[in-house]
Amino acid sequence: MTLGPTLVTGAACGLILAAGLLFIWLGSPRRRRPTLSDRLAPYVRDAMPTSGLLRREPVKRRGVFLTLTRPVVHDLARRVDQLMGGAASVRRRQLRAGHPPDIEAFRTEQVLWGAVGGLVGVVLGLVAVVARSASAVPVVAFVVSAILTGIVGRDQWLSRQARLREQRMLTEFPTVAELLALAVSAGEGATGALDRVCRLSHGELSHELGQCLADARAGANLPTALQGLADRTGLVSLARFVDGMVVAVERGTPLAEVLRAQAQDVREASRRSIMESGGRKEIGMMVPVVFLVLPITVLFAVFPGFALLRLAT
């Protein structure tokens, strides 16, 4: 049984009308009425803030749909975690991407991505059924593939976030190392140099160094806090930098020379990676030249000769 174009057009118009009425209702003045907290905020803004230990997080208001579907989404998230596994790898990549290690939240996001992919698959499948009268088996297979694509896509997106963040940290590393070396040469200690660099610089690496400094001020010794930085990231050069700083702090060796040597090593590694990337791009540029430009050039060179031979015969 196929749906007529008139019925599909009517259903689409009905959905658009329902969405417009919903937006009008959400934007009505009754829905935008200010709360008591909003009315009192201008009068108590300058009051002394309370302690962070006594501060409570505001309760997030959820709609009826989100409240009803939350147990189902959490159950699906547990099933996805059982099927895919790799909780340690996910936690490691979350730390590398700068996110808090929350496996349940990540699995919930995978379920939502799979639901969006399944919805897109259903829409495209209905279009295929209406337009070409396709059978149900390919449509179901396409919907299942879209769901799996959404789930795997969220996992790949996390890996991409971790990789891009590490590239930004590697780009910032030589400058941060030089700043640390200058601060240490000026007479600052290791903790003071970290504090000065965190106040003067902004970026992913300075944020990680600020977290190390916060751990050191919270009671951990500086080598342990720096080792936590090496554990949270997957950069070999940063791990060598942390090892050099730890050895310099524990044994009292000149820290400024160690930092300058580490910065120079990172610059050399970056230069080598750029040259390797340029070599790979050069090989990639040969593909269109060999398979597109060269055959067309040969064709233009040979075609007049074949035309003359054909006229001669």
Radius of gyration: 30 Å
H and E order: HHHHHHHHHHH
Class computed from helices, strands and strand pairing: mainly alpha
The number of distinct helices, counting runs of at least 4 residues, comes to 11
Question: Overall 3D geometry?
Answer: flat
Q: Report low-confidence residues grouped into runs of 5 or more.
A: none
Mean of the pLDDT scores?
77
CA(first)-CA(last) distance: 62 Å
Largest sheet, described in full? none
Beta strand %: under 5%
Helix content: over 70%
Number of strand elements = 0
Can you put this structure into words, describing what you see?
The protein is mainly alpha-helical and 313 residues long. The protein is built from eleven helices and no strands. It has helices spanning 5-26, 36-44, 64-84, 87-96, 103-132, 136-185, 190-200, 204-217, 222-232, 236-251, 255-312. Helix 5 (103-132) runs antiparallel to helix 6 and helix 7 crosses helix 8. The chain starts with a helix and ends with a helix.
